[in-house]
Amino acid sequence: MKKSLIFATAAAALALSGCATGLNTRVSRFQQLSAPTGQTFVVQSKDPNLDGSLEFQHYADIVAQHMIQQGYQRASDPASADLVVDMHYMVDHGREKIVSDPDPWGPWGGGPWGGGFWGYRGWGWGWHDPFLFGPGYGYGDVHSYTVYTSELDLDIDRTADGKQVFQGRAQAHSNTDSLPKLVPQLVEAMFTGFPGNSGETVKITVQPDRR
Predict the structure, then answer these.
(1) Are the C-beta atoms of 157 and 182 separated by less than 8 Å?
(2) Residue 72 gets which letter from DSSP?
(3) Which of the residue ranges 10-24, 60-74, 133-147, 176-190 would you say has the lowest mean pLDDT?
């Protein structure tokens, strides 16, 4: 039993390392954007205290790159920009999760033909899958990990009339609380299929940057 627990712990650590399987992100978008024709934009923080920080500027540059790829232009004079892109990002303090691997031959086990998961919320499917980072490693073993929830909010307002023309939210669960790793991936998810169908929530997996 001791050997089994050691093996399970080591294998789980390997599965958790680096979000190797990509960041599973849930993206919701509402939009009334016209087709881009070179409109100018500026990226700013919803928290004015962050506007001058180097970290925020780094993330703002990433957003700007995506906006330019969409056909917009970064304003040379922020005061005369056609669009204002407001950005906010965060990651929580994490929650410890304890899961046990199912018996494949038990009454709830999937066996080689079944599927699903058995964890802290019981049997189920979906975004809150406790085996977020990979399958179990030894039937009947119990192990724990920390899950962090990260979020990126992106709003775009038209300066001509002050009307909001885009509102988006990207959320993800991960094994890391590192914003420098998470924010670029959340931005990537936000701009995948941008601007999207208004009122639609989609699941997007962003592969990690392997550079």
Answers:
(1) no
(2) -
(3) 10-24
